[in-house]
Amino acid sequence: MIRITGGKVYDPANGINGQVRDICLAGGKVVADVDGGRTIDATGLVIMPGGVDIHTHVAGGSINFARAMTPEDHRRAVAFIRSQSRRAGLGGMAPTTFATGYLYAGMGWTTVNEAAVPILSAKHTHEELRDVPIVDKSCLVLMANNEIVLDLLQAGELERARHVVAWQIWASKAYGVKAVNPGGVAAWKWGQDAKQLSDPIAGYHTLTPGAIIKGLAQIVDELGLPHPLHLHCNNLGAPGNVTTTLESMKALEGHRAHMAHLQYHAYGGDDWSTMRSETVQLAEYFNAHPNLTTDAGAVLFGDTVTITADGPWQHLLYKLTGRKWGNLDVENETGCGIVPYSYRPSNLVNAVQWAAGLELLLLIDDPWRVFLTTDHPNGACFWRYPEIIQLLMRNDFRRECLASITPKARKAIKLPELDREYSLYEIAIITSAGPARALGLKEKGQLGVGADADLVIYHDDPDVLRMFSHPRYVLKAGEIVVEDGDIRATPEGREFLIKPAYDEGIENFLRPLFEDQYTMSFENYPVEVQRIEHPEIRDCMGTE
Amino acid sequence: MGGKVTCTLGEVKNRADFIVFWGGNPAECHPRHFTKYSLMPKGKHVPNGRKDRTVVLVDIRETKSVKAADIFLQVRPGKDFEVLTILRALIKDQAVDPRQVAETGLTLEQLTDLVARMKRAKFGVMFFGMGLSMTRGKHMNSAALLTLAAEMNAFTKFVAMPMRGHGNVTGADVVMRWQTGYPFGINFSRGYPRYNPGEFSTVDLLVRGDADAALILGADPGATMPQPAIDHLARIPTIVLDPKVTHTSRLARVHITTAVTGISAPGTGYRMDEVPIPLRPALKSPYPTDEEVIRRIHEAVCAKPDWIHANGQYTTNQV
Ligand SMILES: [Zn+2]
Predict the structure, then answer these.
(1) CA of residue A102 relative to chain centroid, distance
(2) Which of A313, A397, A424, B316 has the fewest CB atoms within 10 Å of its CB?
């Protein structure tokens, strides 16, 4: 039992904006009152619900591939020293699993959503998630290039496709559905891409990316998944891709959807030398369409490693950088590409990307619909989030940074005209309350009675970077896990799963297809629920 | 590593119409590979199975696998790197020195024919074995092959995959990477993982006599390592966990018999393409599993006072 007294509370889900209140915790939950237990004097400190990362890549085959490709970065990374209660690990561009938990918690984040899981290697993802301590977890299964689903969509068999998708969500022990470059990864298996929403995909007669987007969004809504279709649009990273992004959003009218890392889909121009930010028209459309949420996918200057299921994009990036290239095509389902990358302020494209991420966060007027992410590790590593918070809260700091980017970029961006500064209340929304709501995790991202006792206590520090990098306390499930930068406890986290309704007979349809196309036995394909550490099966929403 | 362009084995089954085996003898070392994944199966996009695929074997000698191939290219021992480098030049239409070609044991006609076939393929794959990765040039050879496969993607779809060894060596590699960032040769003596193959690899530590105890799991170094390493294992307290008595068991202080994973103990095996496969025991074993033994040893070790007197929980300055 803990009572936290005297702190300024920012709990947007409950409309609390900096009022001083006591918060009582017992049994891992926020409660109305406690009798006895420890008291934390938070006088003069700031309290927020623990951070929620709606889109990150921290576990599974792709990030583990990235670890293999970057041993030189491990040497310069922060190294966690083992103790009786803490495991050894390394931070850096692709942190090891234990370090991932320590780094997230150390910054006040207590829930993370791994955004890309192939069914075929989902066991691997969950094994890694077990080794990410402290934080609670969920993951999204990759669907928009799954050939069994694509064949059904092409045949117009939406009803059967819905049962297959539901079966696959449970088979992979996922929480939601991710669509990456719909049709483009399947085309990449023939060395091609899918760039036009209305063109048939290589290897298919009539199926288009647009039809995949619509079909999956409808299925996700019909299943009543708490998190809407999570879409990584076609044409990621390419100059002029804003047209594709707008078309995708239009295809989604009438459905809920989450637009992943929108920054990478917000460009105008015809080629790399004329690339410009088109965040203004994107934000305008987005603001008028409340069926959508998004995360920034913001970029920070510096070194990172990019990993995505978007194989064709990674091949292009490899050709542009001439650096290392990793690629893994996953049979019948998806693929992934890995390219180490440095974002430089002197580079026009990188400067536009840096500005565009911030612009979206500043131009989208409802903070409940745009969330802080870097698409870790693609735009920057997650442990750099405090730098983005500083950029959002301090216009003068933004101007200083603007002075250091290439002058060529000034005409190609909107950022110099934007003076908006985020308040602490808005920061609590984009880092916690908003993403928790978009994930449908009602007891996360808020501090009302009954909420999970996940919270962070900061010094009220005018130095925003210092404030958000070094919380005074972080509590997870009511336990103090971080105190003044030291990890005090490393409890195991839970994993949220969904078991949507499906006709059990769908296995009779899947089994022969599977035995034909895959290389393992059908019985070995699903992840057994016993493999999940502290699974918590959540309900689908009532479908109306 | 300059990167790796690869796929899971089902992609080979469903798509590969051009398959190269380089420095390996799958017919004898991976007996199920041909039938299950690479040559025989009828795939979604290669409906006629073997008939739809061209198979090339590159090796320094004729092995049993040659029979399975359409084309056999016999490379002079130690010249794999040169052949790969010449191929990298040829795919880009760069000139090559005929004298260098002659030294490889292959003719320019053979190599240009290979390049033409590679470019005509719809989906090419190169499997490479220890004959490439463990002979002269070692990881430089693998790197050259991986680079060739990556560069082929300028012309057509091409991937490469190592033919990994026996047991669950891939699984060990995968787990070590997610826990420490490194696949093997990891030193925890400073409390955090450091990596230096050649310095921290087991064989190097043993030959130098740096280790003062050894816990051996799923391996039999007593049968495969150089004599100085074996002598050191006999000198220090060595503990072996194995379902059977191995060469190493005979020189160890302690041998603990454990259940056979996959037969009488559950677990996960990682295939050579890093796809995890659940292992379900068919039998019960009177012996404990490896996991249980390790867990109990670990609990006993944890009960002892901590030996690392680190200043702080982490360091930003690795030494
Ligand atoms: Zn992503």
Answers:
(1) 18
(2) B316
